[in-house]
Fold this protein.
Amino acid sequence: MLVWRLLLGTVLIAAVLALCWADAHAATPGVWLFPLALIITVLASGELLGLLRARGIQPAGWVVYAGNIAIVSANWRANLPAGPLSGSLDAPALALAVACILAFVAEMARFREPGHSFEPLAATVLALVYIGWLMSFLIQLRLLGGGAQGMIALGSMIAVVKMGDTGAYTVGRLVGRHKLAPRLSSGKTIEGLLGGLAFAALASWAVFYWLVPRFAPSYSSAAPALGWLAYGLLVGAAGVIGDLAESLLKRDAGRKDSSVWMPGFGGVLDIVDSLLFAAPMAYAFWAILLAAV
């Protein structure tokens, strides 16, 4: 299993890096990564629906799929000429609102007797916000500022979160003694959390020390002296919460993984759960930094 995980991990990382390289050199930001975001959205939506149905909750599946695709697709509006709904999150917010209305319409059509509408309706809205809306922040990070700046913003968030995961796993295995949240994730420890935050801060320092001055010098001059530390800790902590949030859903559904189609990794949600929660924190940081340039 370890060999398979290392092999599959290497292939996935190589594929994502190739897409990032192609996207960074494309005339239109996001043209290579946007299809990947749509694929992740569809797969993650299916996995979340599976977790909910394992709990006996039956959301409106067609609303979840169509709504999340619409919300994510609406982010492409930022690449179009200025006009109505040209704000970065205006179009996705409208798509989310329409999808929530459709969720109510779907439950109206399915209504037969009292006591069977609240849970599926709430689950449908949860799926729209958790997958479609949070995925929008990942896309907006790439589009923020356009060109190399957006790629740096997205790459910095991924580097901080994944280095935090690596640090938490390594430190937790070596010196972890005190459980962080044993009912949600038996393997996570307080020592691992602290190690993960230290690794996240280190990754943030590396990004601001090496990459930002080279590819986005205007950001470098606008960043406060300890901005990289705050960025690493906040984004890293949000990633940990995102990981535990998905663990909450899996434990409540009685599942170990969100899916089993990627042995050693689980499913797509198991890979992107921490990124979904970290993306809004990273977006806020980079948007403020962009405004200061």
Observations:
- Residues 146-293 form one domain.
- The first strand starts at residue 179 and ends at 181.
- The chain has two domains: 32-143, 146-293.
- The chain is about 75% helix and 5% strand.
